[in-house]
Amino acid sequence: MIPLDVLETYQPAVKSLQKNDMVFNEGETPNYYYQIKNGSIKMYNLTEDGKEFVQGYFNDNESFGEPPLFGDYKYPAAALCNAETKVYQLPKDKFFELLKAHPEIHLKFTKLLCKRMVYKAKIAREISIYPPEHRIISLLKHLKDNSKEEGTFEVNLTRQQISELTGLRVETVIRAIKKLEKEHKLTIKNRKVFI
User: Which residues contact 160 (CB under 8 A, 6 or more apart)?
Assistant: First the structure.
């Protein structure tokens, strides 16, 4: 998100994390801006019965967990490493110094946060009122739209990840994807989903 030449002038720490390491827990106070150097992070909540509801997956060069920094409230979700990951960690005060010195980056964050808000609103609506096929196709279309790729888009999510992002069971996702393929709303090639 923040160009590396700019970010590195503020001397962020680089944390090396292993798969399943926690970056932060739900309810903790945010003290840092996080940007992935390489690896993968999952932000999620646990339901009362212990089921994960995934808020999002974040990968190389993406930032995560910024809204609580801006809003000055506790993290509403936890962040966990999906793989060996290196993360830039910049103290909150230096992050705000960077934004004040680089208004164009601040504007990029405003746009990013707006996109995430729209995504959250779409997903909340999908989960509350629509059947599985509609939830899945809406998620996949959202991913394609955000990728800005023309033509066929390869979905780089596993069935498990689609399940976690839509609040559905994996078995339901598998059946719904097969049904969507029969309805010609997506294509499956070598177990990969394309839309």
Answer: 170
